[in-house]
Amino acid sequence: MSDPLERIRDAIQAIINDEGQGEGWALGQFVIVMGLERMTGDGQIEATSWYWTPQAQPEWMTIGLLESGIEMRACADIDDD
């Protein structure tokens, strides 16, 4: 069985390549940010945010990537209609 981290890296690289962003770019460091949901015992939906990084990734890199993502999102030209 392959290493889970390698499977994640391969999947992210495939997305980069499929979206036409591949053009010589290779995945370096990364942060996975998700919204998780589950049903509680009384039928309510409980939601939380969660993130994951490779274990050996420096904290300064994780913070930098998160800040960069927020900045990129704020500067994006997005049609909200």
Can you walk through the features of this model?
Strands 1-2 form a two-stranded antiparallel sheet. It has 81 residues and is α+β, with helices and mostly antiparallel strands. The chain is 40% helix and 20% strand.
Reading side by side through the largest sheet, how are the strands ordered? 1-2
Radius of gyration from CA coordinates: 16 Å
Count of folded domains: 1
State the low-pLDDT regions, or none.
none
Question: What proportion of the residues is helical, as a percent range?
Answer: 25-40%
Distance linking N and C termini = 45 Å
| Tally of strands | 2
Number of helices: 2
Tertiary shape: extended
What amount of the residues lies in strands? 15-25%
SSE class: alpha+beta
Order of helices and strands: HEEH
- Average pLDDT works out at 90
Q: Describe the biggest sheet? A: 2 strands, antiparallel
Could you give a short description of this structure?
This protein has 81 residues and is α+β, with helices and mostly antiparallel strands.
Task: List the keywords.
81 residues, two-stranded antiparallel ribbon, alpha+beta, 2 helices, 20% strand
Helices and strands, with pairings:
Blueprint: H1 4-18, E1 32-39, E2 45-52, H2 59-75
Antiparallel strand pairs: 1-2
